[in-house]
Amino acid sequence: MIRHAVCLDLGGTNLKGGIVSDRGEFSHHQSLPSEVEKGPEQILHNLKTLASILLRDAEKDSIPIQGIGVSTPGIIDTDFGGLTGGAVNLPGWQNTPFMKVLFEEFHIPVFAHNDVTATALGEAAYGAGVGRNHVIMASVGTGIGGGIIINGKLYEGATGYAGEIGHIVTFAGGHMCNCGVKGCWEEYAALRGIMRTTQEHLDRDTRRESAIFSTRDKEEELTPRIVFDAAREGDRVALNIVDEIGSNTAVGLGSLINIFDPDMVIIGGGIAEAGDIYLNAIKTHIPGWSLPDSREGVEIVLAKLGSKAGIFGASALVFGDINRYMR
Amino acid sequence: MIRHAVCLDLGGTNLKGGIVSDRGEFSHHQSLPSEVEKGPEQILHNLKTLASILLRDAEKDSIPIQGIGVSTPGIIDTDFGGLTGGAVNLPGWQNTPFMKVLFEEFHIPVFAHNDVTATALGEAAYGAGVGRNHVIMASVGTGIGGGIIINGKLYEGATGYAGEIGHIVTFAGGHMCNCGVKGCWEEYAALRGIMRTTQEHLDRDTRRESAIFSTRDKEEELTPRIVFDAAREGDRVALNIVDEIGSNTAVGLGSLINIFDPDMVIIGGGIAEAGDIYLNAIKTHIPGWSLPDSREGVEIVLAKLGSKAGIFGASALVFGDINRYMR
Predict the structure, then answer these.
(1) Could you give the 3-state DSSP secondary structure of residue B53?
(2) CATH number corresponding to A4-121+308-319
(3) Cβ of B261 and A157 within 8 Å?
(4) Contact list, A263 vs chain B (CB under 8 Å)
(5) A87 pLDDT exceeds 90?
(6) What is the pTM of this model?
(7) Phi-psi category of B272—alpha, beta or left, where left has phi over 0 and alpha has psi -120 to 50?
């Protein structure tokens, strides 16, 4: 029998939801503003509202629902039924036992997990990683989040904190990371590192012929998108920047490949929206930062599910019985 | 019923063997010279000789033997029944299907694995890691080998090459590693790195009061042992060197802790024979190279089994049905 889950993905801007089957069929897409700025009570209210809409839809269409899955920023404590540590951009959310509340409201098993982890699970189960057993997912954005799938299962470590791949120290003694360590990978390969690399190249470039200059000179904010777009147009400086971004990203991925000998590495997150020019720059540099035996046979690909990965990940929680709220 | 295995540990100098029970009782210790210099036929002959001695002893003492476990340098191919890739210091060994030969000779299941991996299994099952589920073992010697135990089981990756932790790139762009990559962890934290650090400190030290100088001036070869011994005596220069060794080692271990969130990290190998002064230098620097949430609760300890870890590891292969020769 096909199983179905009501899936919710709580982001900083939108709360997305839908019904997902264990075959990866997605339906009944719904979206509400998260209204994070109105505080945890409003977020909780919106979660309940979206869940009840989807459960009603399911009932109307005679779809039995196995559980509610939630992807959320932060680290879930299933005893508490929510976050006990903080989540950036969601003040107060760490004191809201939303899993407990949803369970008591709807009397259906509730599962929840960190959004980066859920995204990795979604990609592994229904996206780029289908059929792969050993998958490392790197979500590159402001930082680099990780999801580790080993023998087809999520690896969470002894206390649930595994996967902090952004804090592999690749440039020991280098730039200070937000975490207080000098030289973390994400300080070089994620947003801040990309913009620093860009600035360094612009500072060195005396010909000032790059299209990036005109953007900067108009006092528009430089973004990775501007750099990747310029590179795609053949802009010489931008191509050099993208090449260095590729190398800085390959340093950490190469280390992960040497450690895990995975069959697939999936690169997702906001930066990966740059697409093939980004992927190819990384792939070019992987041989320079990994062992031949370890990297042989590893496929390095971009994430496939885009903004739906969190919802699919939420369904993987339900179908995989991962992080169930224990009443 | 207690199970028993005949266990062989093939090293560059000696071939060691014994009978190990699944409760970790070790008996019937035997040792032969490996005679590596006489080539693979002689090594194979010695392996067979030691196995037959131990099997005869077992029969005499009415101990039923479940299997033969072998710890050897190199990467095992269980289809071939030996190594298909090379092993440093064992020329020709990659063409010797020793597992097949032992099986056909004694008609007992034969299991074999890489020595670093076997050592990690031995420490996890019968040494420092007893009762731990998520264990990272780092064997620090000429390089740094790794063993990854996840959910109580050996993690080998998609193609058997997982655990190349010595080649995490911690100092990207730094000193050239034997593998061709600039900045691998083992180039800083293993033998060559320790001796380079020592040399740098000696070069900088104008007072020339350190005991290490007198050793060097006598044209004796400098070794890590001399440095650690001097540090233990309170030698100022040696203490600074050991502190830097501790930091260089903690960079990689901190990264592994952030990735795996293990419950234990075991440090073994020749360098770890320096003991507590080495361990404490590493532990001092772990907070500087890891996240608080990830390192909390991780115990960092020295290996316990010493030169017997390979034999115990060979028994773990047999009892865990790992890397069985498939005839």
Answers:
(1) helix
(2) 3.30.420.40
(3) yes
(4) 158-159
(5) no
(6) 0.93
(7) alpha
